[in-house]
Design a protein that fits this description.
The protein is α+β, with helices and mostly antiparallel strands and about 350 residues long. It folds into 3 domains: about 80 residues; about 70 residues, Helix Hairpins (Orthogonal Bundle), CATH 1.10.287; about 150 residues, Histidine kinase-like ATPase, C-terminal domain (Heat Shock Protein 90, 2-Layer Sandwich). Helices cover about 60% and strands about 15% of the residues. The protein is built from 10 helices and 7 strands. Strands 2-4-5-7-6 form a 5-stranded mixed β-sheet. It has a two-stranded antiparallel ribbon with strand order 1-3. Helix 3 runs antiparallel to helix 4, helix 4 runs parallel beside helix 10 and helix 7 packs antiparallel against helix 10. It is elongated. Bound molecules: adenosine-5'-diphosphate (ADP) and magnesium ion. Adenosine-5'-diphosphate binds next to helix 7 and helix 10.
């Protein structure tokens, strides 16, 4: 980068003045040698003429050069970027402007490449995680079936026990595949939100009823707290997925004899839906990561509970696709509260 900013016009002017002065000096020398020094005024005329002519020639040459060379460069960049045809202003420091544009363009490219690299490594991780997640229940099922074949077939008690264990693992795989289906729909942009007026209190009650059996097994008490009905604009199937994910989490990561409450707050244009539990809680350092795909705080416990680690990633996406926000507050060993907003009708 040049320190002194010179426009093409400056370059032409300065060079032609130099040529003019040199021409005048040369004329004076010739006149002096020819002993016709009294004609010195001719030298000035020659100098001025030379200056004007060379200014014209240099200016045009520079303009042509810039037009050809830099325009080609601009064209290449703008073809990739899809920008406008460039116009060259000779009163500007064209090279510096072009340089800046190229730098800007290069920075954009670097950003894009970094993003692509990240996505790529993310994909590799994703496939690795997925293979692992599928392998575990499959190996379990294989183990149960082998045991049955080898020792248990004649024993009805062992039969039942191992088949029900196998069934649990199949459940886990089905859940994982359903979550994957949601994630892939989200990724490809196929997931559509069809909003309609929904009584969110009623929907929550239905979901809680559906989860009664699971909650009872874990000895967690689920309740919807409300004083009035709230009608929100949302896709009921998707919000059902959100609520049921959050509620199942509150059961899976709840304590024996724990409580989960669903509450609603009127926020003017929005309704805040809150799912609060008094379960195991989440440490601060894990809070930032729970929305990551396949991220689980305690792998061993979650595995036991049968989670895929995809639930919250899906929840976050659905809430945001509704134009809402998902929040979490948690105190380790005391409990967790998830909340999200939905637009009122
Ligand atoms: N209510 C909660 N209480 C404590 N930890 C939770 C709660 N909800 C989610 N988590 C933590 O966040 C992780 C990610 O949750 P999620 O995406 O639903 O995956 P998972 O399939 O493991 O349930 C869980 O593995 C768990 O460690
Ligand atoms: Mg979950």
């Amino acid at each position: 980068m040049s320190q002194i900013e010179r426009t093409p016009k400056d370059v032409a002017r300065q060079s032609s003045i130099f040529i003019g002065v040199m021409g005048a000096l040369a004329t004076i020398t010739v006149l002096w040698l020819a002993e016709a020094f009294e004609l010195w005024a001719v030298a000035i005329v020659v100098g001025i003429l030379l200056e004007e002519i060379s200014y014209f020639v240099i200016y045009n040459a520079v303009e042509k050069f810039i037009d050809h060379r830099i325009k080609v460069l601009y064209k290449t960049i703008s073809k990739i970027k899809g920008g406008d045809e460039p116009s060259i202003n000779m009163d500007e420091d064209v090279v510096e402007t072009a340089n800046q544009d190229v730098m800007e363009w290069a920075e954009d490219q670097i950003k894009e490449i970094t993003l692509l690299r990240e996505t790529d490594s993310f994909r590799k991780d994703f496939i690795g995680n997925l293979a692992h997640e599928l392998k575990t229940p499959l190996f379990n099922i294989q183990g149960f079936i082998l045991t049955l074949l080898e020792v248990g077939l004649d024993n009805p008690e062992i039969n039942r026990k191992f088949l029900s264990k196998a069934e649990k693992n199949i459940d886990r795989m089905t859940g994982l595949l359903e979550d994957l289906d949601s994630i892939s729909k989200i990724e490809s942009g196929v997931m559509t939100i069809d909003p309609e007026p929904v009584n969110i209190v009623e929907l929550s009650n239905d979901i809680v009823d559906n989860l009664e059996r699971k909650a009872k097994d874990a000895n967690v008490n689920l309740k919807v707290r409300y004083t009035e009905d709230f009608i929100v604009l949302c896709d009921p199937q998707k919000i059902e997925q959100v609520l049921s994910n959050l509620l199942v989490n509150s059961i899976n990561y709840g304590k024996d004899g724990g409580k989960t409450r669903v509450r609603f707050y009127d926020m003017g244009d929005n309704i805040l839906v809150e799912v609060a539990d008094d379960g195991i809680g989440i440490k601060e350092e894990d809070l930032l990561r729970i929305y990551e795909r396949f991220y689980r705080v305690d792998k061993s416990r979650s595995r036991h509970a049968g989670g895929s680690g995809l639930g919250l990633a899906i929840v976050k996406h659905i809430v945001e696709a509704h134009g809402g926000n998902l929040h979490v507050r948690s105190t380790f060993k005391e409990g967790t509260t998830f909340s999200f907003t939905l637009k009122k009708v």
